[in-house]
Amino acid sequence: MATYLMNNMRLLQVLTSALLIALAPLAQAETQWLDSVAAIVDDDIILTSELDERIKSIKSNIARSGSQSPPEEQLRKEVLDLLVLENIQLQMANRYGLRIEDEELNAAVARIAASNNLTLEQFQQTVTERGGSYLAIREQISREMILQRVQMGNVNQRIQVTEQEIQNYLQSSEGKEVTSPEFHFSHILIPVSSDATDAERKQAENKANSLSAKLRKGSNIDNANDDISISDLGWRKGTALPALFQGVAAKMTDGDVSDPLQSASGFHIIKLLESRGVKQMVKQTRASHILLKPSAIRDEAQTLALAKELRQRALNGEDFGDLAKEFSEDIGSAQEGGDLGWTSPGQLVAEFQQAMDETAPGEIHPPAKSQYGWHVIKVIDRRSKDVTDDMRKQIARNALHERKYADELDIWLRKIRSEAFVDIKI
């Protein structure tokens, strides 16, 4: 145990604080410890103050949720066990050299603020007004992000999802429900009262036909007219749509406007704003490139000059693939003549994607800069591909992976806990 204490800087800090208190003026009635050790975990410690602070936070969350807090002794034991597990993982992160950069942390905090309908400034103000510390919140978020990455890095590699499992899932009732098409409709109702005369009903029908025709021509209908009710139905599975709409929805494509549909409440018009899972077509591009990276022997300007030279040589008739094999520093594609195969939007870095999208098949784009270096890009061809089946399989794979993840995470956490040195001090 002496080895653990000697190698532990945080423990030394606690001892130093205690020493400073002991050296305080004699007027002080008695020497008091600023803190104590709740547990030793491998090469680190958990302070009693950390434990108390976490218990306080959890109690506050329990109170806000209206739930019943467990007995004090049980809660204290469970929270300490949680801190021990977190500490083991954070030590693993330190060994991996895992860090959360400020830019990434800022983006994460901004997303949390936005999820609460707050700007970053409003979020900071809210935290302060509630007596909290914005810096402490950032530290907590960073901690959670690190823990998540350590878990994913160690658990994901333990999970295998086979093609047979995917097929079985897609054929199951759950799989069919999860992968069934979804629709996002806007809805207009021209109401008709139950005691309406034939003339009033006919007038409402004519109005519905007129609105449907205007919408098809691209007109916008506002909600100013008391005789019209406009609503957004949001994203819904086909089976969750009102029965009146289901048969029509299956035949519509994005942007379509339905004919008026009659019900007991009046005449309905629906417009399909978006859909997913029906038939997904993706525009793909096949391109080749030559990647040149600045280095100690070739600076930025020289690298750009070489990129321009190679582009000109290709334009003059030299084989682009041969040039890529000789000069490209992209190990993955150089031996394939720079061929990247068919790619979908979002697969490549933004600068490369933009340059590629600006280039017609058969043409070579001027050198484009990305985080990897300078690219000379030649677009070979473009196509539209139906990726509906691929997307359904990916949804199934994600669902199966998520199902296995919780079990594998629990097994992994038990494993690292059993392998760690833990000495509970309280």
TrEMBL record:
It catalyses: [protein]-peptidylproline (omega=180) = [protein]-peptidylproline (omega=0). InterPro entries: OMP_Chaperone_SurA, PPIase_dom_sf, PPIase_PpiC, PPIase_PpiC_CS, PPIase_SurA, SurA_N, Trigger_fact/SurA_dom_sf. The PPIase activity resides only in the second parvulin domain. The N-terminal region and the C-terminal tail are necessary and sufficient for the chaperone activity of SurA. The PPIase activity is dispensable for SurA to function as a chaperone. The N-terminal region and the C-terminal tail are also required for porin recognition. Residues 152-214 form a coiled coil. Gene3D superfamilies: 3.10.50.40, Porin chaperone SurA, peptide-binding domain. GO terms for cellular component: outer membrane-bounded periplasmic space. Residues 180-274, 282-381 form the PpiC domain. It holds the Pfam family Rotamase. This is Chaperone SurA. PANTHER family: CHAPERONE SURA. It is found in: Periplasm. Its EC number is 5.2.1.8. It comes from Zhongshania aliphaticivorans. Keywords: Chaperone, Coiled coil, Isomerase, Periplasm, Repeat, Rotamase, Signal. Chaperone involved in the correct folding and assembly of outer membrane proteins. Recognizes specific patterns of aromatic residues and the orientation of their side chains, which are found more frequently in integral outer membrane proteins. May act in both early periplasmic and late outer membrane-associated steps of protein maturation. GO terms for biological process: Gram-negative-bacterium-type cell outer membrane assembly; protein folding; protein stabilization. GO terms for molecular function: peptide binding; peptidyl-prolyl cis-trans isomerase activity; unfolded protein binding. Residues 1-29 form the signal peptide.
